[in-house]
Write a structure and sequence with these properties.
73% of the residues lie in helices and 2% in strands. It has 3 domains: 205 residues, MFS general substrate transporter like domains (Growth Hormone, Chain: A), CATH 1.20.1250; 217 residues, MFS general substrate transporter like domains (Growth Hormone, Chain: A, Up-down Bundle), CATH 1.20.1250; 150 residues, no CATH class. The strands form 3 sheets. Strands 1-2 form a two-stranded antiparallel sheet. It has a two-stranded antiparallel sheet with strand order 3-4. The protein is globular, with a radius of gyration of 25 Å. By secondary structure, it is mostly helical. The chain has 25 helices and 6 strands. The relative contact order is 0.13.
Length: 672
């Protein structure tokens, strides 16, 4: 029996150990800082150089290129940060290090100089690497032997995540966009709450005993969405199978080459667009070479279809031939689609005929490198899969398909902090007068005060249980809340003193967190009922809902003429889009890592966990690259055409997931 765990459970708040709520508030302040800064980033970078609240005057393409790289690296550094915590620092110290580095990053950005801005982003990326994987690892360690409580623990934890995101975007966005305050105050407010969160967590370390203090002798990975399952066990057959398939020298070389190519692209893309610094200065290749690359993609992806068919045929006793035909035809359709989409992704104007006929057709070095890196990675992934026994191979194929859907989901969903925020600023009617202004102020008041009052009550419960054990931490936490209430009252009083009001562009970002908090219990009931859909159906429903949200924006922007830089679309379209997007997220969020832990052999979880984060990172960068097309597509076609792209792609892949549901269920071989 672990004495520290038993001691933690002696002091309970709402049925859970008080230490969970220390983590809750630490995560809340970190998310407050992260999303408060993130929602301002694209607005600040693209704001005009001259004005009442001047920004840097970047194009949306340049701004979203940087933001895409930033978002990708946020999902790559935790792979390293988790390893460092496991081997050297322990979870708790890693969290403290991460908080401190992130606090420096936020405060650095408040100075608004080029050096401090880029240094701030770098510090935030590094700090997130230490922080992100280790908070959930601490919860995992706290609840060893208490698995029945994990469901509620992670629910509480994610409420902290969304509460922090909600207030961060609301308040940092309000002060950052305000002409009376400015960007420095928005970024600085994020840094202040990160500092207070760090102090509160550090002063509460005595409450945890040895929890998170020492690196585990055996590396374990706790997947936060996997809240109802114990860590997978490995039977003798799987152990033998894994031992027969170690990483060869060629595998390691290919991994390094693929990783180097991907990182080169991540850094070279914004450097080339923003600073005209070319890390890959070789001459651009011509149209024939691009066509050859796409031809290789088609041939290679057809080979993947054959791999799928071979994998399925190994279970020919349980698969119907119809499933084989459906899988082959649909996957071949995907591959051809992806080939055409790759051409569109590189440039709106590059088509196959143009590639073959025009000597001016070209592909820059950075895109050439990333495509080659992708080929190498796909070869590595499928060559390794082919070495495993049929059951493991089939399950890994299912994971690969879900990873593809994850890339598509994040490429579209992350428009919320990019092109959708620009749409809110430039194309949404945000100036309200009369009754409309009064109604909005009342709604905003309720949305702000009610959640904050509930969280303050939780603070009071924690204070009652732990005052004698961690008094200084509680005092800091109380002062933090007092400061937060002062900021909230200032905002409310300022807005109610005006006859008219202008909704901040950043305000719309809070809708995702609000809808998650209100709708999550309903979706949870759905998943617990007998109508709980399969993994593929959840992905399908989620992607279709995501596409439907963009479909609302397509409808709302039909009246905006080609090339328009400003418009006044009703905000109801944006609100409905966020509603659909959040419902889509709630369908997909419980699927990914949870099913990963069930489908992959235990000793491969750490590696596949990294691969899954890589898929999200690719989605993040794709979101930035595709979102950066908003000005170009609006100028050449229309804004509705831009959103139509994000409507058709997710819906197409969502329907594909539904069609593949029978095949994927068989590939998962009984995993539910």
């Amino acid at each position: 029996m672990n004495t520290d765990i038993e001691n933690l459970f002696k002091d309970k708040v709402i049925g859970h150990p008080a230490g969970l709520f220390v983590i809750f508030f630490t995560e809340m302040w970190e998310r407050f800082s992260f999303y408060g800064m993130r929602i301002l980033l694209v607005i600040f970078l693209t704001a005009p150089l001259i004005g009442d609240n001047p920004g840097w005057g970047w194009t949306s393409e340049n701004a979203l290129s940087l933001i895409g790289t930033y978002g990708s690296l946020l999902y790559l550094t935790p792979i390293v940060g988790g390893w460092i915590a496991d081997k050297f620092t322990g979870y708790r110290l890693a969290v403290v290090i991460g908080c401190f580095i992130m606090m420096l990053g936020h405060l650095s950005m408040a100075f608004e100089t080029s050096f401090s801005f880029y240094a701030g982003l770098a510090l935030l990326i590094i700090g997130t690497g230490f922080f992100k994987p280790n908070m959930t690892s601490m919860i995992s360690e706290m609840y060893k032997g208490k698995e029945a409580k994990k469901d509620g623990a992670y629910t509480i934890y994610y409420m902290g995540v969304n509460a922090g995101a909600f207030f961060g975007m609301m308040l940092c966005g309000y002060f950052g966009e305000s002409e009376d305050w400015g960007w420095s105050y928005g970024f600085g407010l994020a840094g202040i709450f990160m500092l207070l969160g760090l102090i509160q967590f550090w002063l509460a370390k005595g409450l945890f005993g040895s929890i998170g203090a020492k690196p585990s002798k055996v590396h374990e990975v706790e997947l936060p969405q996997n809240i109802n399952e114990e860590s997978p066990t490995i039977n003798k057959e799987e152990k033998a199978n894994i031992k027969l398939n170690p990483f060869t020298t060629l595998d390691k070389v290919l991994m390094i080459l693929s990783a180097m190519g991907g990182l080169l692209f991540l850094f070279s893309d914004p450097l080339l667009k923003i600073g005209e610094i070319n890390l890959l200065p070789f001459k651009e290749v011509g149209g024939i070479t691009i066509f050859a690359l796409e031809l290789v993609a088609i041939i290679g992806l057809i080979a993947i279809v054959m791999f799928f068919r071979k994998t399925l045929s190994e279970f020919e006793n349980i698969y119907k031939p119809l499933h084989l035909r459906i899988a082959a035809v649909v996957l071949l359709g995907i591959l051809v689609y992806i080939s055409f989409f790759t051409s569109f992704f590189i440039s709106v104007y590059d088509h196959f005929i143009y590639l073959l006929s025009s000597p001016e057709a070209s592909l820059s070095g950075q895109y050439f490198i990333v495509i080659i890196s992708l080929y190498i990675f796909l070869y590595l992934a499928f060559s390794r899969m082919s070495r495993y026994n049929p059951m493991v191979k089939a399950r890994m194929v299912a994971v690969t398909v879900f990873a593809l859907f994850t890339v598509i989901f994040f490429a579209a969903f992350e428009q919320a902090l990019g092109s959708m925020t620009l749409f809110a600023r430039d194309y949404t009617e945000r100036a309200l007068t009369g009754n409309a202004a009064t109604i909005f102020k009342i709604v905003d008041l309720i949305l702000t005060v009610v959640p904050l009052a509930i969280i303050t009550w939780v603070l009071y419960l924690l204070f009652k249980k732990t005052y004698n054990k961690i008094p200084y931490s509680n005092i800091v936490l109380a002062l933090t809340f007092a400061f937060l209430w002062c900021v909230v009252f200032y905002k409310i009083n300022t807005e109610f003193s005006k006859e008219a009001t202008e909704v901040k562009a950043s305000w719309f970002g809070i809708l995702n967190s609000f809808f998650i908090i209100t709708l999550a219990p309903l979706f949870s009931k759905w998943w617990e009922s007998k109508y709980n859909p399969s993994a593929a159906m959840k992905y399908g429903i989620g992607l279709v809902l995501l596409g439907a949200g963009f479909g609302v924006l397509v409808f709302g922007t039909l009246g905006i003429p080609q090339g328009a830089e400003k418009a006044s679309v009703s905000m109801i379209f944006l609100i409905l889009a966020y509603l659909f997007h959040t419902m889509g997220e709630l369908c997909i969020s419980p699927v990914g890592l949870s099913y990963l832990s069930k489908l992959v052999p235990g000793r491969m979880i750490g590696f596949m966990f990294g691969i899954w984060y890589l898929a999200i990172a690719i989605g993040q960068k794709s979101a930035g690259t595709m979102g950066g097309m908003i000005d170009e597509i609006t100028k050449e076609y229309s804004l509705s055409t831009f959103f139509l792209m994000f409507t058709l792609i997710p819906i197409g892949f969502g329907l594909l997931s539904v069609v593949l549901n029978p095949v994927l269920k068989k590939l998962m071989h009984g995993v539910k």
